[in-house]
Amino acid sequence: MCICKLNEKLKAKIKISFFLFVITLIPLTSASDTQSAQDNAFPLWNCKPPCALGDKPEDSPTLTPYLPEIKKAKNPAVIICPGGGYSEVMVDHEGKQIAQRLNEIGITAFVLKYRLPANGYRHPVPLMDAQRAIKLVRFNADKWNIDPNKIGIVGFSAGGHLASTAGTHFENQIKADDYIFDEIDKLSCRPDFMILIYPVISMQDSITHHDSKQWLLGKDPNSAIVQLLSNETQVTPQTPPAFIVHCDDDDCVLPENSIYFYNALRKAHVPAEIHIFSKGGHGFGIRPQAGPAAQWPVLCESWMRQLQILQTEENGG
Question: Which of 69, 115, 156, 311 could form a disulfide with 315 if both were Cys (CB 3.0 to 4.6 A apart)?
Fold first, then answer.
């Protein structure tokens, strides 16, 4: 039951107006800033979030914005979902560092601190947070110099499951009882593209990351929810394009997760690119210790230029 409840419509309108005013004042963080990124985080909702269990920081999902120094007429943007097995959010090497790297090629980035099943927020709450983040960035596209038709989602490990869920379940926008919807909720939560790095994709026992599955769905989920959240089974021609990276020696999240998802995208004629590196393991982000696998942002930039998410050099990119 959602506890974000207002008794009068007037109060709802006042809070929404106040939220939109505050959003215009939010500072964006440059990649060169030394200030703690968390200081610039802002909530996804201006009231108590839908389905909140309390008032602690872990009960309030946030976005931390990073502004690229490259100035374009309109920049593409991404929402970054760090990994952590659905029990924590790795906001540094799978969040801040990724945002700063993407800033270098002209992408505005937002690191999402989503609510965790480990704190009592099982499916569909993390998806609710991801959908709200996409709509919030799209709503403020003009203020943040963003192309509203080039808003993607990036996910690492369990964050890759969340990102791929956002990319395959956007027609089912998560709602909560007693929540008063605002103008932001009217917008599409479909990401325009996905970037999935060593992602958990499937909930099927043969290839899933079992800790992530148990946190998200509980110890004994029914077969219907397992099938629903095995995202390789949920791909349609409307699924957004995807760039996928995995390592063959990843013994934490098996590369079959990425391979099966890529095959499903290909079968549905969705533009997709996959890179399977022989070595690199799991959880490396962009750390150079992973070797060639850590250079995935270079390959991803080329892919984004091919899809015209980023402008090509000939077109002023």
Answer: 311
